[in-house]
Write a structure and sequence with these properties.
2 copies of one chain form a homodimer. By secondary structure, chain A is of the alpha/beta class. The first copy, chain A, contains 23 helices and 15 strands. Chain A has helices at 5-11, 39-45, 83-97, 111-114, 123-129, 148-160, 172-187, 216-237, 253-262, 270-275, 280-296, 310-313, 315-328, 332-336, 339-349, 352-360, 363-371, 386-403, 420-423, 429-447, 501-515, 531-534, 539-544; strands at residues 25-32, 53-59, 70-75, 103-106, 118-120, 163-170, 193-198, 241-246, 266-267, 302-307, 413-418, 453-458, 468-473, 478-483, 486-491. In chain A, the strands form 3 sheets. Chain A has a 9-stranded mixed β-sheet, with helices on both faces. Chain A has a 4-stranded parallel β-sheet with strand order 9-10-8-11, with helices on both faces. In chain A, helix 3 (83-97) links the parallel strand 3 and strand 4. In chain A, helix 3 runs antiparallel to helix 5 and helix 3 (83-97) packs parallel to helix 20 (429-447). Chain A is globular. At the A-B interface, helix 1, helix 8 and helix 19 of A face helix 1, helix 8 and helix 19 of B.
């Protein structure tokens, strides 16, 4: 593998660990815990892993004298910067516990456990991946571990390799399933501990116990670098509006964080759109008003940040898509029809309100809503180019206002979508340190015989040496939600809180950012410079922890 | 203006200057020069600025004792990283020459000179923009200075501000026009010197005298960071082909440089396509064969780099677009026709070969070729989403091969276009140093009374202190070319040379890169780390100067 000069230099970086973990530690048990809601149901579903205490590591003088432990590790779901550092922290921790401990990586996600595909992770392999982005060390996958048959199949290989513990690195769903697995193995007395690690660039796996999920910091910094570059261009050329869509289907944390970092003219937050029950036309009008205000003052340029999932949070679009899904299911008249007649056919058959919304959509998007369907017969929302939809509709509205004499500017739009550009970036110092600490902490939870816990590193807005390491019972973060028609125990997803400090900070400034040009240009992630450049956590995390930005 | 922590830290960076410029220098004249072609015509057009000698600065012991000089500066055309450093180098040089020298910036490009829009650039303003990206210090624009009426209008304000010299920072066209202006003012004995500086991220303004244009290094490093991130994602998820289009309409230097930095599976070079007279189907087949080979070996992922201008370099597409432009000009039948009948109408009216090519195009692109036309009635090539066109056509071909049993893989494509993400990035150390040196050199050319020159800094693959500073007569780089129907003197555009070291290096490796997975992940531009990470010039420049990479 040919490596870049930065990779070579970066390989030597020793991630910062909480000071406490550099010493001999003992595990201190806190209060017994309860799930955030639906305590009775969750307890019934997790009789062996419910109600366990919070755990915290503290310094101790005696050497605990652990024996060697073989451990397996799985990367689950979408890539996030820092995954390799969780694994290297786990590896170093296990080797510190006992030099004969072994670490096995299951290949291409949870499927590797079921299909018995694995490699042993040796020092040589680990060293090649320290502080790098990507999940390519063992690959990742989206197979869901939900079925006892899978669990039993996995158990075979775990027994065969004499593995005593499994670390699952994933998002909210994967950690829920990790806990189901922990409960299953415990109930069965299988002798396999299961520990989770909080991963997702979306930032939606966090709560009182988990301050942030790893990867969010790096991904947002990459997107903010690009948004900043575009804003500098926009402010130099002074002739384009850039509509920038950012990854994040269900929560808008990424978009909000990028707005806090770059101060764009417009930033839409899905959670606000849903709460205020905004219509598509209201959103378009809001953007167009900002464009018009700036244009009437000679500033025919600007930036609009859009969360990927926006369209699903606009109530009227949701209703429209639901009716379309029903109406078009097995509709042979429609599918056999000349393509050019489909639009009129749809409009004439929808209920009046939905027909109106559908008719207001630009042709390309309207077609996408009726043509591209997933295997379940649903609209493929991820294919909808919301950034183009909004740019086009804003343009139409402005043309009308120009005719009415309300708008005198010029409007030309460019669109962008950033997602894959950030998921596998090399981790920022924050993510490199945080991930390494999460992995190292997981090894200590394993050594102490714990299962059904997530590795937890807190106090993360302080310098790394003051970070606090411990474990959180996964059941503590769960509630019951409807999934595919049935009630399931799941870790509560963290959406943007409209009364939270990050949104409030944005909300106070957005009018100024819209009218004036207040762009900030964060530039690329730095690894070697002064600490105020290289070691800062995300603005979201700082604000959530009561700090100022 | 709120500035990011990186900007604050970066403001303190003192760009490296050639050692020679830190001392007292004298100007040494070399041989008289000739234009690269059409000597007779160029000499006739530039009687006062033709044939001047090459210039080089050398150390001298005596203090030249210059008087104060007021200078104007213009940013022309598209943004490129480092423009602010040319201006700060020029400013520092002028102040070094005499503390009472003043620098005026004309606003929003060459139009600012004609319209008398300017600001005085003070120490306070300059300090705010050192080492930053963008052209926002004075803005840029695309007004062409071609007409004596503009020159005379400009002269009014130059006289009024007692300006003795004008520095024009631009690409090949802008530098050509700068020389026309130099000639005009010299012929008129107006007492205004004009000096050019070589800017363009496209990298097509270079030759034996100008080793590289500024901005190319930074822009390519930003794009390569993103391509590397996508490749790491692609190699982790192992399920997508990413089709990535990169800025660069007429030359493919950016795409080639990014390929040398990241080692993608496929990279198309427009100059090769044109030289080999490749058809669209040949290109699609080449990509599809690579996808099929990888897919048949279980690797259903990869990357394809595509230069923005590709479509215009495919001979059959050029012929098709020419016929379409003629056929559709003032064609009322077509424009009044039901949109859904236009495609068949076009196919039935084109000449047989063009009809075949047109019929092979996906619907969206075919429509774009007939619908969106610029004010001159031509196809708007920049609107054609070549990356989607190729992804779709490759998909169709693979489906056919799958039916024939020749292909057993899975193909899913993602598309990206990177351009605006890199034009205004904060300059790399290379561009920061190179630009500052170009600006500083320009001030010395001015102090020495020169006009019709471009600022030149050579030996740029060595450490900055060994760089060589001087001036190149702009006429030396010119030849006669047909523009809008008339022969004009222009600076020869540097296209990718198929026998040059950068393309040859790529060409030797591409088969291996296609079949194996040889991705390199360059990561983001670093400013504070070890010199092998922070101070490397582009691979293209290294190879062109006979170095290895």
């Amino acid at each position: 593998m040919k490596t870049s000069s930065l990779q070579i230099a970066r390989a030597a970086y020793q991630p910062k660990l909480p000071k406490i973990l550099k010493n001999q530690v003992k595990l201190v048990e806190g209060e017994k815990t309860q799930s955030v809601a639906d305590q009775k149901e969750i307890e019934e579903l997790f009789p062996n892993t419910y109600g366990m205490p919070l755990l915290k590591f503290e310094e101790c003088s005696e050497n605990p004298n652990f024996s060697a432990i073989n451990t397996g590790v799985i990367l689950s779901g979408g890539q996030a910067p820092g995954g390799h550092n969780v694994i290297s922290g786990l590896f170093d921790g296990l080797k510190h516990i006992h030099k004969d401990s072994k670490l096995y990586g299951f290949l291409m996600g949870p499927g590797g456990l079921v299909d018995h595909k694995y490699i042993e992770l040796t020092t040589e392999i680990i060293d090649e991946y320290r502080n790098t982005g990507g999940f390519d060390i063992i690959g990742s996958g989206r197979t869901k571990l939900e079925d006892p048959a899978q669990f039993d199949k996995g158990l075979e290989i775990l027994k065969q390799l004499d593995i005593k513990a499994l670390v699952i690195i994933g998002g909210d769903d994967s950690n829920t399933n990790a806990c189901v697995l922990a409960e299953y193995y415990k109930a069965k007395n299988a002798g396999i501990q299961v520990i989770g690690c909080p991963k997702t660039i979306d930032g939606d796996l966090k709560n009182d116990m988990i301050e942030t999920s790893f990867g969010f910091d790096t991904a947002c910094k990459v997107y903010s670098e690009l948004i900043g570059n575009i804003q500098r261009d926009c402010n130099s050329a002074r002739k384009y509006w850039h509509f920038i869509k950012l990854m994040g289907r269900s929560a808008s944390h990424i978009t909000l964080e990028c707005a806090l970092q770059t101060q764009p003219n417009v930033c839409l937050i899905s959670e606000e759109v849903e709460t205020k029950q905004q219509s598509l036309d209201e959103i378009v009008t809001y953007i167009a008003e900002t464009v018009a205000h700036r244009g009437n003052h000679g500033n025919n340029f600007g930036t609009v940040l859009i969360p990927e999932g926006l369209i699903e949070f606009i109530p009227e679009m949701r209703v429209l898509m639901d009716e379309l899904n029903d109406f078009l299911a097995d509709n042979d008249d429609f599918s056999m029809m000349d393509k050019n007649k489909q639009r009129d056919y749809v409009i004439s058959h929808l209920s009046p309100k939905n027909a109106g919304v559908y008719a207001s959509l630009p042709e390309g998007v309207a077609r996408q809503l009726t043509l591209d369907r997933d295997p379940h017969g649903n609209v493929q929302v991820s294919l909808i180019e919301t950034e183009k939809l909004l740019a086009e509709m804003v343009g139409v509205k402005l043309q009308q206002w120009a005719k009415e004499g309300k708008y005198k500017g010029k409007f030309a739009a460019m669109t962008h979508f950033f997602g894959y550009e950030g998921r596998c970036a090399a981790p920022s110092n924050f993510d490199a340190d945080y991930c390494y600490s999460l992995g190292y902490t997981a090894s200590l939870l394993i050594a102490n015989g714990k299962t059904g816990y997530m590795s937890s590193v807190k106090n993360t807005t302080e310098p790394a040496e003051k970070w606090v390491a411990g474990g959180v019972p996964t059941t503590m973060m769960m509630n019951m939600e409807k999934r595919h028609g049935a009630m399931k125990p799941v870790i509560q997803k963290a959406l943007v809180k409209l009364d939270g400090a990050p949104f409030q900070t944005f909300s106070i400034h957005r009018e100024q950012w819209a009218k004036e040009t207040c762009y900030v240009y964060p530039g690329p992630i730095q690894y070697f410079g002064p600490t105020e450049v290289c070691d800062q956590p995300s603005k979201t995390l700082l604000l959530e922890q009561g700090k100022t930005i």
